[in-house]
Amino acid sequence: MSRELPLLRWLWGRPSVKAVVTAGLLVTVLWNLKCFIRSSNSSDEALKHTKVLTVLVWEWPSRQVPDLSGDVCREQYGIAGCRLSTERRLLSQADVVVFLHTTLPRGRDRLPRDRPHGQGWVWVSLESPTNTRALAGWNQTFNWVMTYRRDSDIFMPYGKLVPNRSATVSIPTKTNLVSWVISNYHRTQKRAEVYKNLSRYLHVNIYGKAAKKPLCKDCLLPTTSKSKFYLAFENSIHQDYITEKLWRNSLLAGTVPVVLGPPRANYEQFIPADSFIHVDDFSSLADLATFLKTMNSSRYQQFFAWQKRYSVKLYADWKERICTICATYPRLPQGRLYPDLQSWFNS
């Protein structure tokens, strides 16, 4: 041992050895520091993703506010980390505040003037631009939009097809050719013009307030399911504006939709090309009427091939719609305001 000490002192005294050892110690310290920082960041990310988001709905869309107690989003829709509330006293604590256009006050000054740092405001509308008024006064107000349009920050369609491998084709018994349920009928609408001309060539069974034949909530699907075809005519023509007229009144009911809305290519982004008939597929409404009246059983059944792979999911519950905000939240752009909401929605 006594011989080794002088040797160690000699080695340590050499500049090259001292530099190597010092460098090694420095590398070790820096590596440990990097691991510590990475671990801290991972912990911060974990906390960020496990944080329960508080979503305040400024005014619920229906008169009766549902029970929002408990973990509604997780228990009913499988969306964790989401707390819904309509209590405005929680404004300072809310991560997101939701404003439905149909419940917005007339003036911006009736909404909170200041919002907590990092709080996001969502503008919600399921109506088309044709039926949406007074947007000009809401510039520089909302961070995100939630609409039926696929380019929305939070996409909320009226329905969709979901994969279902065990599905089988089920076509209800048919007793008539064509039906249509219509509540708001205005002669200036394109659908009114198309119906008027189409009815010259075939009979359409009409129901709803406009026809003075209202249907109860549980009567609608059993009624439309008896028709071979259903007129899924939208009240206005806009990109992606495909409503419950297609999803519920037609596909879910088990009848073939005859659609009037955006171009066929737009519909095909939502449903298979062979699952519907588009008014624009024909050079005249007389040709469309002939096609419907002369269709044989084999050709008709082909329209239901989609049922072998999919089933219809409706989005009709506002609780589920609001819970979807939490599922989308990690991907939402931060720190942005829509400078001109009207221009965006009308584009």
Automatic annotation (TrEMBL):
Cellular component GO terms held in the UniProt record: Golgi cisterna membrane; trans-Golgi network
Top-rank EC class of the record's enzyme: transferase
Protein's pathway: Protein modification; protein glycosylation
Database matches in SUPFAM superfamilies: UDP-Glycosyltransferase/glycogen phosphorylase
Annotated organism of origin: Gallus gallus
Pfam families xrefs: Glyco_tran_10_N (PF17039), Glyco_transf_10 (PF00852)
Keyword Ubl conjugation: no
Catalytic activity: an N-acetyl-alpha-neuraminyl-(2->3)-beta-D-galactosyl-(1->4)-N-acetyl-beta-D-glucosaminyl derivative + GDP-beta-L-fucose = an alpha-Neu5Ac-(2->3)-beta-D-Gal-(1->4)-[alpha-L-Fuc-(1->3)]-beta-D-GlcNAc derivative + GDP + H(+)
Primary location recorded for the protein, binned into one broad class: Golgi
UniProt superkingdom: Eukaryota
Family: Belongs to the glycosyltransferase 10 family.
Subcellular location: Golgi apparatus, Golgi stack membrane; Membrane
Fucosyltransferase N-terminal domain ranges (all copies): 53-159
Bilayer topology annotation: Single-pass type II membrane protein; Single-pass membrane protein
Protein EC: 2.4.1.-
Transmembrane segments: none
Domain (Fucosyltransferase C-terminal): residue spans on this chain: 172-344
Protein name in UniProt: Fucosyltransferase
One GO molecular-function entry: alpha-(1->3)-fucosyltransferase activity
UniProt lineage: Eukaryota, Metazoa, Chordata, Craniata, Vertebrata
GO biological process annotation, one example: regulation of cell adhesion molecule production
Entry keyword set: Glycoprotein, Glycosyltransferase, Golgi apparatus, Membrane, Signal-anchor, Transferase, Transmembrane, Transmembrane helix
